[in-house]
Design goal:
By secondary structure, this protein is α+β, with helices and mostly antiparallel strands. The protein contains ten helices and eleven strands. 32% of the residues are buried.
Amino acid sequence: MMTINRGTHEGDLQEIEFVKDFNKNKTCDKFKDYTSQFKNKLENIYMVRVSTNQISHLNGKKTKTRADCFAIFCEDEKVKNILDENDFYLNEQLIAGLKFSPIKFSGVSIKLEDSEKYQILKIGPNSFCSLFGNFELGAGASLFCSREEGLIKNNDVVKGWNTTLSKMKDYFEIIEDEHDLITKKEVCQKVKTFCNNKIKELIDSSVQIKQKVFNGYPLYEEPYTAWYLFSKGKLKVLKEIPFVVTTGSGRSHGDYTIVLKPKKES
């Protein structure tokens, strides 16, 4: 279960406010480019917040989707009563009894005003391997390398990434002896830098990987992919977000993940 922290709570509130704002003011200029895609009458278009987890084809598990909300076409008169009762807010539970059609490729990813507070993507070993084709790059990016005394933890890191010191040696030319990852700080630093750069390069050079990372396509069924981004008060087409590669916060207690975070604006 996800722990509700300050950032999560703020994110929830922003998603709720976005849905309400759209359903109140869908004809305003802020939503003009977004609503221009709809062939149906705008008066029957509504925004719905995602309140369920969906199967990810990356790991076969139910997870939070890329889309935080999506549009529906609904002529059911009951929707107006629901809007009145909920101050223009709709989520999946509230519309469960209505006749409606989800609109494909209408998903919106909503990010906090402070762009440094959110994660673009967080993936564990199996999902990482499905996306990039091996465990070794993820293990290398997760290495401890800042202090000599911390290098011994790399034994567990490598195991946690479903690989071995021997396989790491075979994968990385810079490693001369498999024990370098637990004894040589400078080797670990070079491996980690290489892996971070390689992961970024693989994403930047592949349209398919970009769509999986940023849009969730085709990892989720429609309408749970995200093709639009709402951030800092603006709604725009989502193609990619400048990012950096880092590790998750649980590395010290055996939760190994690679995290993509937005690159700080200079």
